[in-house]
């Protein structure tokens, strides 16, 4: 048995930590080339720069706006949250105070990975000790670092890095790191129930949505589970109220950023960002997949999670991206095992206790499994009818599933330790570890067998990207109040023949009313039009239909005016048009039989339509 302060054991742990971190950083796309320690996308760099200048918006102008950014009356914004820029802020500020610019963001990410590993290791030590297992033995070391390696090398985490580690994947990767840190602090709290730790846990739980809106599920489950633990242990209502207040403060911080950036506390920017026409339509106007049958939607999500998209619900359109397999059948068994344990704990607690399993271990396993299963359920409900489903979104389930795995492993080891002795105990431990090692390799073998390409850049390229961005937004073309299709115009979205697809977006001067004129090709049915200015829907004010029979062709020309009672003080707005064929859409065409002729804005509601 090794003691906690044994120098050889400390050296062994340090060596394992360094080797694990070095192998992960060098083999993955995280830091394959130390001379290129920067991410390809500068979105977080721009947001951090704005914070250091005392601003929130990246620019007051929309010109030069990149793909997936957005522009509202509050300026141009990135849509990936302010959590990661806030995590980067201390490093960038200190770097600039020393006279430098552009702190290597991959080193920042590496720092938070190290922080996650350290806090998880500390939490697992406490869990093993409380469960009657020896945390500072070779077995304890294998359990702790094996679980951390499982997280780092899993397809859910490593797949984000290997598949074009852009800002889309980076946001979710940071979110997973944050969730594991939150989990580790929760584990520490249930073993060291101090008021200060509870306040930190609840505050960080509320702030989770700053990184990703969906992380509020992990934050909410953590806060509620911690409050239930406090009530069961102390019945301290005052402490529970303090915990919920801290959680609410964290949530309010995110809502305040949403209001400052987008003009609404519950707006996260997805309904106004500039993407492809179909994505814009589904995010801004309607999600056709919400009409899908519940069982078909659930079958598709389960298939996407555990069976590599073997089934797709085809009755309604949905945006799907399958970049990498995230989970497999073994994870489904883990999820089911967690449910079986929870039911057993509630209905067959006495038989579990009769097996001499450590009571403290049972409580830890129960709370951890509840944490994982409840989080999994919330994510499942959210993504069940999501307009988009892709591998990187599904990676968010990994924290919940890995928590259940850790709880079941802890339960298995405690069972072997309590119910057996001597050679039989050693034999069962070896069999159990051999099973876990085999499962580890089968689930994570892609990480060891595939050597990815370098996808990072150096400081010169970062500066070039930032300078190019700043130059583009300085371009300030004069925007006319009326524009005719076919004329040269910055940002005109229609094709050369002026035909439109699901959603059309265009920048125009800010006025009360927006008028558009379009023609229906052949005998197409009259569409239902919806217009947004930023995140606000405009109301239909006037509609006029005329017939055109010139040159032997029969066309309908429709002119419609949409107005708002609110006038925005800025000079430019993003107007979006949703071309809707019916109240309940069964299919969204990529190209509609509609020709957009001209658009116009005016500050007067009662102008006659010519």
Protein structure class: alpha+beta
Q: Judging from the principal axes of the Cα atoms, what is the shape?
A: elongated
In total, how many beta strands? 12
What is the straight-line distance between the termini?
91 Å
**What ranges have pLDDT less than 50 throughout 5 or more consecutive residues?**
582-588
Mean pLDDT figure: 84
Compute the number of structural domains.
Answer: 2
Question: Any chance you could write out the topology, listing elements then pairs?
Answer:
Layout: H1 7-27, H2 43-52, E1 70-72, E2 75-77, H3 83-97, H4 105-130, H5 138-153, H6 155-162, H7 167-191, H8 195-207, H9 216-234, H10 237-262, H11 277-284, H12 294-306, E3 319-321, H13 329-347, H14 349-354, H15 359-384, E4 388-390, H16 391-394, H17 398-419, H18 422-449, H19 459-474, E5 482-484, E6 503-509, E7 513-520, E8 528-533, E9 536-548, E10 555-563, E11 572-580, E12 594-602
Parallel strand pairs: 3-4
Antiparallel strand pairs: 1-2, 5-12, 6-11, 7-10, 7-12, 8-9, 8-11, 9-10
Helix pairs in contact: 1-5, 2-3, 4-5, 4-7, 7-8, 7-9, 8-9, 8-10, 9-10, 9-15, 13-15, 13-17, 15-17, 17-18
